[in-house]
Amino acid sequence: MIHASFVRLLVTAAPAYVYTKFLAQVSHQAIPLPRTKTSSERYLKAAVSSILGPDFRFKQPSPENVDSSTDLPIYDELTKILPDRSAQSMFFWRRVGRPFASMLDAAAFPIASQISCLTFVYARIVGMLGPLESRGSSSYMTFDGSPVELSWVIPSNVKPGDGNTGRQVRFAIEPIDPRTGKLLSGVEVLKYFTSLQGGLGLVKCDPGVLDWSMIAEQFLYSSADQRRFFIGFDFSRSGEIVLKTYYIPSARPTCAQSAAHKASRPRLWDVSYTPLRSLLTTLDPTLMDSLNMMISYAEDVEPQFKPRLQILSMDCVPNEKNRLKMYCRPSHGTSWSDARRAFTLGGKLASPKMDFVLSRLETLWNLLFPFAHSKSNRPLDERYKHVDNESTCQRRSVEHPTGGLLFYYSLVPGSGMILPKIYLPVSRYCVDDEAIAEALEKFYAIDGRESQEPGWVAREVSSAYALATTDLYMKNLEFTHM
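-> structure tokens emitted (482 positions)
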């Protein structure tokens, strides 16, 4: 039995970088701390103090913490010594910190890095996940309204059961004030995390890493617009953290409001990408060739299949290493031919490498959605049966629809190309979690990367959530074209 739900799978095109993203992972074996309880506690306190400062006060021993083992020794020991700052922070420390600890453990991060990453989550993340009583219900971050999305990445050259040392760990949040429930300013959040105080010396903040994000936020929003902002964290094995930013454009204003808004500003669900020309010219003029390809596709494709703009994203890295990511969702089209058309921009991304990636994507599609097999070209929506899930793990709104296919197009400076990805909302279209787990394992076997431990997907997800409730969901699978 699986105790967590898959929300969607993300598939990307790349010949040499096929990787899998999920929400959470569980440890295969405990990474030992120093042998004795005293030395273990001393080691942990020294490591935490090196991050939070020598004056940081630890929690006094309590009988309540003795039997709280989760088989994640670093998380368990940190839980015993870190103060319970508030009911809100400890709620999210359990809901988010525990699965995150499992991911770090499964990825075989060094002990010191696991401690620093978990300390960062405790000290800087859980306090930005909104009020306890609302449970992040106002967030657009995930289908169920939770303000956090966790994932791991399994590179193409790693078998799931072979040590997992190649796995990467990451998550994203929608920053929300825990006192008021109001959205926190993207500019202020970025400035905080790239400061020594906010980043705790762990966040990588080279000169210029916020240039693109600051330009994009100023370009996208007027003073009257509501600003929806997500921030992502990529954790390296060294303990270093790289940030990412995500912006949801404001909805198109009503006729009465339109005079106060620039006509050239891109809006949520726009199908015209010409307003982005001025932004891309400012970010990096070499992005224009890629944007022109996107504009050409959007103009050529039938209206119901046009890619509607939902999110703009970028990394917080030096400008020459950055990329602009556009998340787009057509209003209709859930068959294999629809997926193929949008994934290749109507054939504009044709190449032998793309043919290879499409064959793998088609294999995965047929394993996940046998009722909508590629040869039948049947739409996924014909077999939507998860009515009960509509009231729990999925929300419908103009700003955050849950059906259909979501695509992500990455524009890389100087390349003249677009790198596509596709999100597959498996929680909506698949029978159940067990079927998803089995499909993924079959795909790895066909791909020549079968695990030595049959049932690893179901077992690891179930174990990861055995001591947590199921408000957080298993999320993405991805193969990529780079």
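The first helix runs from residue 37 to 52.
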